[in-house]
Amino acid sequence: MGEIALSAKKLNVYYGEKHAVHDVSLDFAEKEVTALIGPSGCGKSTFLRSLNRMNDLIPSCRVTGEIRIGDRDINEGNTDVVALRKNIGMVWQRPNPFHKSIYENIAFGPRYHGIKNKKQLNDIVEESLRKAAIWEETKDRLHKSALALSGGQQQRLCIARAIAVKPEVILMDEPASALDPISTSKIEELISELKQDYSIVIVTHNMHQAARVSNKTAFFLNGHVVEYDKTEVIFTNPSEQRTNDYITGRFG
Ligand SMILES: Nc1ncnc2c1ncn2[C@@H]1O[C@H](COP(=O)(O)OP(=O)(O)OP(=O)(O)O)[C@@H](O)[C@H]1O
């Protein structure tokens, strides 16, 4: 494994009395894609959201354990959560562009974080859209509404928006599940490109997708991680019978 970008240690997540994630410890390597798979309700999204403290927004939610990035635990009280979410970006299941122009969707984050220079903002917009493989489709309509883009284009725009603030890690919660097959394959190609620069953690229901895009896979069941290994091992020679049963479609 390369350098560790992000690490969960004995992470537990509760919604009131409901214990949704049990004692999960996982290391995510720099510049690798890690897929989180498992049946509906097994805690994948809850775990993913805890990696940049998105669960803080849910009043009943309580988290124990550590999430380490570098030498810091993000669950410490003095964490700057805005800076944290700049460093660990998020792409959601449904594309959620702001009701603004394509340009403003991308420039918003860098501007919020203090970049005012117009040329610098222009460069960031172009670079982010290029990296998200949507520059050619948008360069002549940068000041038109982002909502006029197709769903697949909107999702690539949302990826560009996440990239624009220069994160180290990008979290993706089923980023292609609302898209058609062509848009899905564009997102998958993009993920393969992006891992040259970022660590990516992706929740997916689609096992073919996990097998295609990820280096490592964690199999979740009832809030526990049953098995975590190289993706090829999980899909061809898992150690646990429950992993084998899941990937061969016996349940879930
Ligand atoms: N906001 C919430 N309040 C209360 N319980 C919740 C909340 N969100 C999730 N849960 C519960 O926590 C458990 C884990 O849910 P989670 O959404 O993390 O699973 P998942 O594996 O991502 O499922 P899916 O694949 O269907 O999205 C489930 O039992 C779910 O009902």
Automatic annotation (TrEMBL):
Gene3D superfamilies associated with the record: P-loop containing nucleotide triphosphate hydrolases (3.40.50.300)
Keywords: ATP-binding, Nucleotide-binding, Transport
CDD domains (alphabetical): ABC_PstB_phosphate_transporter
Keyword Nucleotide-binding among record annotations: yes
MF terms in GO: ATP binding
Source organism phylogeny: Bacteria, Bacillati, Bacillota, Bacilli, Bacillales
Name of the protein in question: Phosphate ABC transporter ATP-binding protein
Organism: Paenibacillus glycanilyticus
Entries under PROSITE patterns matching the protein: ABC_TRANSPORTER_1 (PS00211), ABC_TRANSPORTER_2 (PS50893)
Highest taxon of the lineage: Bacteria
ABC transporter domain boundaries: 6-247
Pfam entry (one): ABC_tran
